[in-house]
């Protein structure tokens, strides 16, 4: 891609007055937000709402660009940074934004609007993986089986470490305590199951909740809607396979 947008190099902490998609055109990059590292490559972008301070740390062989799209976070329904799954139509639209000199008149505002419409379906709200090998092993196991009910102490024993060390890794490297991280992982898995049309009661059990009521309450706190409404919305927008 021959982009006309400014390439990001190692940066100091900064903010943008407009919502940003941090976009890796090649290689890998890290974005630091509140000392939590977000790892990006050509498969994932990072939506950073306006006003959020961040530091971009590209690797030497990478190409990274800020894609600024007004009101993107509002359209996507998020107030905090989230990962975005890339590919297909989104990549094509970003190419238009990054090369405005090659686009037809009015193409960039049209691309902005289409990105705003597309992004809600592409939010990857799985929590950030920790960097520490043992904590990362636990995190991957929970993502693979969100209903696993092992305690922090039991996970620590399985990794031959202490619960304090494991808790410290999650807190320092993801910004979340272990219980917070596990709940975020469970609710993210639940959202994908609901998108696929699974019944609410089945989803609640599958992701480790004892009953539908605590699951519904936790889901509403995170997403601002009930699981049943989220399931219906997925059907209405054609997100189910």
TrEMBL record:
Keyword vocabulary terms for this entry: DNA-binding, Repressor, Transcription, Transcription regulation
MF annotations from Gene Ontology: DNA-binding transcription factor activity; sequence-specific DNA binding
Pfam families the record matches: HTH_18 (PF12833)
Domain HTH araC/xylS-type per the UniProt entry, residue ranges: 136-233
SUPFAM superfamilies: Homeodomain-like, RmlC-like cupins
PROSITE patterns named among the record's database cross-references: HTH_ARAC_FAMILY_2 (PS01124)
Domain of life per record: Bacteria
Name of the protein in question: HTH-type transcriptional regulator RipA
PANTHER family: HTH-TYPE TRANSCRIPTIONAL REGULATOR NIMR
Organism whose genome encodes this protein: Protaetiibacter larvae
